[in-house]
Structure formats: structure tokens, C-alpha cells
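Entry for the shared binder. Reason: the reviewer on the internal report wants the predicted structure included alongside the sequence.
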Amino acid sequence: MGILLAMTIPLRTRVYVMTIAVLMGVVGSGACFGFSMANWAGALVGSVAAGTGAGFGMAIRPRPAMTSVGGPGATAMRKGSPTRSS
């Protein structure tokens, strides 16, 4: 039942939520690494550094042209119209 409910959420929203979850994991791992090196101050520095790096990487990453699997020509193909002239 849960997987069917999750499929009703738009793809764009699911990709965004997964990206944020990965970003949170990166920040957590930076905090753990920093804590193992230099106690609480290191945890703070590690999480800020990892979060800044991951956030910057997420901001400059190349965006896909579209998030739809079907694409713009999918409707025309379903109707049987030719896709290119021969």
C-alpha cells in the first residue's frame, strides 16, 4: 500500500526529497568525522564544511532538460504519427 501511495507523488518532488536526504547524510557524516578528530568543535566544523560542499555541488550540478520519462514525443508516438520524415 505504501509504494502505491508514494507513486502518486510527482517525480520532481520525489527526486528533490531524495536529494535532500542525501545532503543530510553528507552533513551527518561530516559531523561524525569532525567529532572523531576534534570533539564537538570538530563536529561543527565538519558538518558545516560537508554541508557547504554538498550544497554547492547540488546548486551547480547540471539539470536534466526534463524529468518526464515519456518525453515530448511520447503522445505522438502513441497516436501512431511518424516521428521523422522518410
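Summary line for the report: Residues 21-58 form one domain.
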